[in-house]
Structure formats: structure tokens, C-alpha cells
Write a structure and sequence with these properties.
By secondary structure, the chain is an all-alpha fold. It has a single domain (about 5-235), classed as Orthogonal Bundle (Chloroperoxidase). It is about 50% helix and about 0% strand. The chain contains 13 helices and two strands, in the order ααααβααβααααααα. The chain has a two-stranded antiparallel ribbon with strand order 1-2. The termini are far apart. The structure holds protoporphyrin IX containing FE. Its cofactor is heme b. Keywords: Heme, Iron, Metal-binding, Oxidoreductase, Peroxidase. Belongs to the chloroperoxidase family.
């Protein structure tokens, strides 16, 4: 059976020991084939930067938790909480592939900011016009909790207009947390520059300013940002 490593020569090249030796820790950015990726730009980026298996396959929960703590400076409670949400996707051998995250209504859901709803045909591919609308909600400035609240309300209306069913309470909560996950992970003082947004969403890469910023990212911070977003949806 051909593995995706052998289908994608750049990944094979990446794994040669002499290349690893030359690159040291080997967290250089090499974009993996999109066919091996899921709808989460965060986990895709971790694979593109070698914090998770670059081929996006056979990933263990402990690899995810370690990557979140070491690359993105999450504390253990936050890293564990996020990682545990992957449990329903595990295979018999206790691993999952990034593509498994495309399965609808397990942890993937409608009303995403940059992905279409399931009934619109493709629930996992990045959609550039949706990304432009996300940036436009910030009126030319940086993306903030307030602009994300605007996006959140707009996407709910668009999804309803497209005839998609509402989210279950579980997925509503997951969606709410995801809406502020980049803001919390970037830890750039509540503002996401357009440059950071473009790098993260279009290249699926965490810029150095995020990776080098060792400020601990906490579950408390994530939930706090989510509550602030909710507040702005009302006021
Ligand atoms: C174990 C950790 C994680 C899990 C299980 C996870 C899971 C997911 C899933 C399933 C989606 C797709 C939701 C959908 O559109 O239906 C998603 C989207 C997203 N994830 Fe993650 N994620 C994780 C870590 C991260 C991290 C560290 C970031 C950091 C920035 C991140 C940022 C995002 C963003 C911004 C979206 C929304 C994409 C959009 O529609 O605009 N995620 N995540």
C-alpha cells in the first residue's frame, strides 16, 4: 500500500537523516499535501512545521499534547482539554490522521469562519473569499475579539440562510472556543495583525513571533476570550 510519505517526494526528502542533521530540530516550514490535512489550520500548521508528523498520519494524542505545550506554550490543562476532544477520532491503534478531522459533526461543524457548511459541499477546504470577509469585519485594522464577534454573528446568519441546521450544544461550545483560538494562541495582546492572519490561514504556518513568545497560554484565557466574544455579540 503506498503511504502518503512515498506519494509526496518532498516529505520523503524531509525525512532523510542527513537532512534532519543539517536542520537540527527540523521545524522548518514545508507545506504538506493538502490531501493529508484537515479543517484545523492550527494542527495543519503544527504538521507543516514538524511539531506533528509531517505526513499528517498516525498521530497519537500524546504527540498532540506535547506539540501544543512545546511549540505553542500551552499549559497542561489547556493542552489536555484540546487534545481530549480528538478521542472520538482515534483508530484501534489509538492514533488518528488529520484527514479524519473532516468527518462532519464529530468535532468538525458548520458555521466555521473560513470553511463552508457541510450541506454546501466541502466542509474542510480553506475558502479565500470567506477569509477576505473575516478580514473585512475588522475594517482594515487588526482582528480583535470585537471583530471576531462580528464575524461570529455574520456567519450564523449566513449559515441559517444557507439552510444549515443549528449546532448541538457541544459543537456550539467547540465553535465558540475555536472562534478565539488563534487570538488566544498567538498571545499578541488581543490583536491579530493582517500579516499574522495571512500567514496562519493561507500558509498554515505559525510565525516566529508566536513560536518564540513563551507567555503561557491557559484554559482560563481561552474561556475568558470566548466569554468576551459572546458579550460583544450582544452589545
Ligand atoms: C488538539 C488541538 C486542536 C483540535 C482538536 C482542533 C480542532 C479543530 C477542528 C475540528 C476544526 C474545524 C472546525 C470546523 O470548521 O468545522 C478547527 C478549526 C480551527 N482551529 Fe483548531 N484544533 C486544535 C488546535 C488548534 C490550535 C492550536 C489553533 C491555533 C491557532 C487552532 C485554530 C483553529 C481555528 C482558527 C479554526 C477555525 C478555522 C476557520 O474556520 O476559520 N486549532 N480546529
Amino acid at each position: 500500500m503506498p503511504s502518503s510519505r512515498s506519494e509526496h517526494p518532498q516529505l520523503q526528502y524531509e525525512q532523510k537523516p542527513e537532512v534532519k542533521q543539517l536542520l537540527g530540530d527540523n521545524h522548518s516550514y514545508i507545506r504538506g499535501n493538502i490531501a493529508t490535512r484537515g479543517p484545523c489550520p492550527g494542527l495543519n500548521a503544527l504538521a507543516n512545521q514538524g511539531y506533528l508528523p509531517r505526513d499528517g498520519n498516525n498521530i497519537t494524542l500524546s504527540e498532540v499534547e506535547t506539540a501544543l505545550m512545546s511549540a505553542l506554550h500551552m499549559d497542561k490543562p489547556l493542552a489536555s482539554a484540546l487534545t481530549n476532544s480528538l478521542k472520538p477520532l482515534l483508530h484501534k491503534d489509538k492514533t488518528f490522521n488529520l484527514v479524519d478531522m473532516r468527518q462532519h459533526n464529530i468535532i468538525e461543524h458548520d458555521v466555521s469562519f473560513t470553511r463552508l457548511d457541510f450541506r454546501q459541499g466541502d466542509n474542510y477546504t480553506f475558502q479565500p473569499p470567506m477569509f477576505q470577509a473575516l478580514l473585512a469585519d475588522a475594517n482594515g485594522g487588526p482582528v480583535t475579539v470585537k471583530s471576531l464577534a462580528k464575524t461570529y454573528v455574520r456567519r450564523r446568519k449566513e449559515s441559517k440562510a444557507a439552510g444549515s441546521p443549528g449546532l448541538s450544544i457541544n459543537l456550539w461550545f467547540v465553535n465558540l472556543l475555536q472562534s478565539v483560538s488563534l487570538l488566544n494562541t498567538a498571545a499578541t495582546g488581543g490583536k491579530l495583525s493582517r500579516e499574522l492572519m495571512v500567514t496562519f490561514y493561507t500558509e498554515e504556518r505559525f510565525p516566529e513571533e508566536v513560536l518564540r513568545n513563551e507567555k503561557p497560554r491557559t484554559l482560563f484565557g481561552l474561556v475568558g476570550n470566548a466569554l468576551l466574544l459572546l458579550f460583544y455579540t450582544f452589545f
